[in-house]
Amino acid sequence: MRFRTFRFALSLTVVVAFVLATGPLAAQQAPPSWKQGQPKDMESSSLSPIAQPPAPKAPGEIPVDKIKVPSGFKVELWAHGINNARAMTWGDRGTLFVSSRVAGNVYAVIDKGGAREVKTIAKGLNLPNGVAFKDGTLYIAEIHRITKMEGIEGKLDSPPEMKVVYDTLPKDAPHGWKYLAFGPDGKLYFNIGAPCNICVPPDTHANISRVNPDGTGFEYWAHGVRNSVGFDWHPVTKELYFTTHGRDWLGEDVPSDRFDVAAKKGLHFGYPYCHQGDILDPEFGRGRACGEFAAPLLKTGPHVAGNGVEFYTGSMFPSEYKNRAFLAQRGSWNRSQKIGFRVMMVTLRPADVPRYEVFAEGWLQGDQVWGRPVYTRQMKDGSLLIADDYAGAIYRVSYGR
Amino acid sequence: MSLSPALAADLDAGRRKAAACVACHGPDGNSTNPTVPSIAGQVGIYLHWQLLLYRDKRRVDPQMAPIAAALSEADMADLAAFFAAQRPAPPAAAPAAAPDPARADTGRRLAETYHCNDCHGRDFAGREYAPRLRGLSRDYLVAQMRGFKARTRGDLDGAMTQAAQPVADADIEPLADYIGSVK
């Protein structure tokens, strides 16, 4: 008996030793989020996200003359040397605050009549894509929190501390960076994207949310939104319009990214079950119908990566531009023929489909990308600034005169 | 699209400025100290971003912090371009023991399990958006993976921090043994 126990112990030892030598049988893990959802037959695809340059381009390396705009408009390089320049918002005293994403910085751009001075007012932040300004205070959205700098415009050289407004937010990096803007109701709106390419997200993700500027009253505004990093409110109807990046790896031409209106709270825009309003997801769409969800106002094109949304309210551009939406499209990676890298415009028409046409393009030359337009911001005089996070620059588009 | 990380980088200036770096990183950036990474032939965009992360205290290291704090934008561009252009040397010191084939097989399977090659390339040579891992020492790789898993290793966009979360503690060393042994 003793002998048998010993033999059993010995064989167990051999088995344990074998398992240790060959390693634990770890279950297959999910691929990185950009590759997740890639079907077997696309496994050899060489498509992958475009790497973000670590430094802005020098003015001499920025071919502004390649940017085409409609007749009567002109484009100039307004500011440069702003690494990874993204969203823009105006201070009360005319300072332009500019966010970045992976560069981790927030900038202040001061217009010195003919030249612009750029100051870095915050650095080392966690993908601080969102900036909004109200009553002397700058609000900054990172992945995991919203903070504020009070009285910032008087303290650009020694910025005040960042006070936490709201930090009960998921920490997921994929699609975790936020656009941030004040709605007509005085609340701060921002997105919490899906933490994946395609998955059934937790209830806390894939939405547009809002919170009071004092951090109270958090609530979800829209659901089923995979990754919206741009929105604005219609100047007349005050309804929220937003862009969404569609899922990857479903094909060259599907699904389309979308431009939507969330006129009331609580609508579901389909992710991850239904894409572009009429394609059920091959995996997650089973047993669902696209009719359950809000349909897109406009299909903006596959993989175009629509970011900025801004309704034109100025008076410099011709009168037909009034209340048109400018959509800045950062451009595709998950498509062999590149698409996007342009600013589109949308004219909403009662009882008709919106008109959708190019406003500015030329950052893509053949297959070569030299810049990526990501957000717009109107100037007081009605001209339009366009931020390019790839070249680290801001352009100004003006009309006539 | 330009593949050059440092758009106006000057290789000769980089070589001059690199004189201080090679004291730790080795000749041409080929390190012989297992705790210091080899940076010869590393992806230039990656090197440039790491210098920025050190300067902005997003990646923390007592040796690199003061060095990066003193670098200008041009210095970073020049240094990244210079080291990216250097030829990676085979490891100078022979491994202490012959690699154990069973352990290497375990490491290879773990690399598949955790999708390491999806970003770092089939042969770990790196891509524009992910560093070369070939030629890095096993000790350095272990330290980085532990740091990413603990969310203490600076990360540009959070992608590697996320990728490291499911990696079992017991898998880190066999993975590093394998990646560190890829020729």
Estimated structural class of chain B: mainly alpha
Q: Average pLDDT of chain A, to the nearest integer? A: 93
How are the strands ordered across the major sheet of chain A? 10-11-12-13-17
- The number of distinct helices of chain B, counting runs of at least 4 residues, comes to 10
Proportion of strand residues of chain A: 25-35%
Largest interface: A-B, 42 and 45 residues
Radius of gyration of chain B: 16 Å
Amount of beta strand of chain B? under 5%
Q: How much helix, percentage-wise, in residues of chain B?
A: 40-55%
How many β strands of chain A by DSSP? Answer: 29
Sequence stretches where pLDDT stays below 50 over 5 or more residues of chain B? 1-6
Order of helices and strands of chain B: HHHHHHHHHH
- Residue windows where pLDDT falls under 50 for at least 5 positions of chain A: 1-24
What profile does the largest beta sheet of chain A have? Answer: 5 strands, mixed
Description:
The complex is a heterodimer of chains A (401) and B (183). Chain A is built from one helix and 29 strands. Chain A has one helix at 2-22; strands spanning 73-79, 88-90, 96-98, 106-111, 116-122, 130-134, 137-141, 146-150, 163-166, 180-182, 188-192, 207-211, 219-223, 231-233, 240-244, 256-262, 267-268, 274-275, 279-280, 298-302, 306-311, 325-329, 342-347, 355-361, 364-365, 368-369, 373-378, 384-388, 393-399. Residues 1-24 of chain A have low confidence and may be disordered. In chain A, the strands form eight sheets. Chain A has a five-stranded mixed beta sheet with strand order 10-11-12-13-17, with no helix packed on it. In chain A, 47% of the residues are buried. In chain A, a hairpin with a 5-residue loop joins strand 10 and strand 11 (188-192). Helix content of chain B is 49%, strand content 0%. The longest helix of chain B is centred in the middle third of the chain and has 13 residues, at 101-113. Chain B has helices spanning 11-17, 22-25, 44-55, 64-69, 73-84, 101-113, 116-120, 138-149, 159-164, 169-181. The A-B interface holds A 21-24, 26-35, 48-55, 57-58, 61, 101-105, 123-124, 126-127, 143, 172-174, 176, 368-370 and B 1, 5-8, 45, 48-49, 52, 56-58, 73, 76-77, 80, 102-103, 105-107, 109-110, 112-115, 118-119, 127-129, 155-159, 161-163, 166, 168, 170-171, 174.
